[in-house]
Amino acid sequence: MLYTSLLTIHSVVRWALLILYVAMLFRAAYGFHWQKNFGKADNVLLRSTTSVAHLQLIIGIALYFVSPIVDYFLHNFSAAVGQKQFRFFGMEHGVMMLLSVVLITIAGAKAKRKPDSSAKFKTIVIWYVIALLLMLGGLPR
Fold this sequence. Notes:
mainly alpha
């Protein structure tokens, strides 16, 4: 029951994160290209995206410890590491998504310290694109 509930919550939060993430990425690209000011709304969107990414990570970590797939992977490592589905959920997905959240966090921290709006937007775009590539690599296929 806990596994199913966490999996459902993880799936719902994924969509909230995707919406915020894409909105922030487009807003940053637009702001950088058109030399817009990094305003309060941009800051709120950036912090919201980071917060939801952290929430998704926490849910994912909890899910990792109650997942029957991960349980099999951890208790049968030698055999499971050779099986794509078990290796993916037992190792690859979590590592790629953790790194993505780290990069999203770095994007916000670095952007906050930049002296002007253009540099803030550029920093977000660069770090978010790298994080997006990691996320795409960590999606179930």
